[in-house]
Write a structure and sequence with these properties.
Number of domains: 1
Number of helices: 6
Oligomer: single chain
Strand content: 15-25%
Number of strands: 16
CATH architecture: Alpha-Beta Complex
Largest sheet: 8 strands, antiparallel
Distance between the termini: 24 Å
């Protein structure tokens, strides 16, 4: 299938490239350095934390609860993990990311597939746009830590195989949902999140790995736009349900050296979820049905 590719209106940049390999060479010991600067004092406190500080593993399900686009009122509360959930949306499991830093596209695939669209990484990149004119790099200044990179509100910036700073915001990634005529709604707070989930709309959001602590950072684009981001543990995830205390997360990352037992599904408190999305400017969107073309979850053919 051919998907429409939008035009890009904002300029690309240029800068000092920093690959993951180069970054690792500069981070010998505890300090960090960037492009000719002295070692930075910034370290990733999250790497020293128990990965289960905030998350609790759940059995991953694909056929329990609402189909995508189906109101929770149709199914009533769903029981899972010894709890009752006001909303609980059926989503597929993606067992591992395509590459180290493709979490935006892996999590987008989960939602796309739930609506019947099996879109490859290359297809998503073509739609979102991939800015390789500048490899993101960081600097520490008197006023804080800054990442210099492409316009992550418009395109994915950096190498998804080499640069742990590579990423995109939801405004860029939403283009893949627009391409298949899904309805996209911003969900920056609890009220809008609950409303979307109760309508069977999964939420794509920018996060930290395992919802752990972060180093507050500012992303600077070539045009001078600024975005609040996290430094080294940026991630993208999907919310698939909630009750009064917690939200349910679908995570495509799976086991890694920082969490060898990372589950595909877990719960986290509302307070922690809201704190984590706030770290990246409350960057979260929900996807509702336009036309559901298939059955990506074993039950996603609901078309109200």
């Amino acid at each position: 299938m051919t998907y429409p590719v939008p035009r890009y209106t904002r300029s690309l940049g240029s800068g000092i490239p920093l690959s993951r390999r180069g970054l690792l060479r500069m981070t010998a010991g505890a300090g960090l350095a960037a492009a000719g600067m002295a070692s930075l004092a910034v370290t990733s406190s999250a790497q020293r934390m128990d990965p289960y500080t905030y998350i609790t593993a759940m059995d991953a399900t694909t056929d329990l609860g609402q189909r995508v686009g189906q109101p929770a009122d149709d199914t009533g509360p769903t029981n899972a993990d010894g709890r009752s959930w006001d909303a609980y949306i059926q989503l597929p499991i993606k067992e591992g990311q395509d590459f180290d830093y493709t979490c935006e596209f892996d999590s987008a695939w989960i939602i796309l597939m739930a609506y019947g669209h099996d879109m490859t990484l290359d297809q998503q990149l073509e739609i979102v746009g991939h800015d390789l004119s500048i490899e993101p790099y960081w600097e520490e200044t008197a006023s804080g830590v800054y990442i210099y990179g492409g316009d992550i509100a418009e395109m994915y910036s950096g190498s998804y195989t080499e640069n742990l700073l590579a990423r995109a915001r939801t405004t860029a990634v939403r283009k893949v949902f627009d391409a298949v005529d899904l309805q996209v709604t911003e969900t920056p707070d609890r009220a809008t999140s609950e409303r979307a989930l109760l309508q069977g709309q999964p939420i794509f959001f920018k996060s930290t790995v395992d919802m752990l602590d972060w180093d507050p950072t500012t992303w600077l684009t070539p045009d001078g736009d600024e975005f609040p981001v996290v430094l080294t543990n940026d991630h993208a995830l999907v919310v698939m349900g909630f009750n009064d205390e917690d939200v349910i997360i679908r995570d495509p990352l799976g086991p890694t050296s920082t969490n060898e037992t990372r589950p595909w599904q877990y719960r986290v408190s509302w307070d922690r979820y809201l704190d984590v999305i706030a770290a990246q400017g409350n960057d979260a969107i929900a996807m509702g049905p336009g036309n559901v073309d298939g059955d990506g979850t074993g039950g996603a053919d609901y078309n109200p």
